[in-house]
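TL;DR need structure tokens for one chain.
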Amino acid sequence: MSSCGAVVGGVSLDRVDVSTQAVIQGVVQKDGEPVKVGYVRLLDSGNEFTAEVPVSTAGEFRFFAAAGTWTVVALVPGGSARASVTAELGKIADIDVLVA
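>> reply
TL;DR here they are.
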């Protein structure tokens, strides 16, 4: 499996050639509001840890991943949530992760 690099969400993609990347990004929300503190983990199709990033102050996160099926796990004070997402080269997969 190829490696995965990640940056904190919210950073502009203006200078990134998205046609050669598979991007997974989104916002973590709890009680209808973006979280300000927490982490998001990226697990591969075998549920193996691949990467982790802190959320931005707007609850945003972003990963640059290999194409395939991934699980995003949000870990925030008072809860956690999982969401499945498919990443494709040349596309940005936007996902909202809702923590109950």
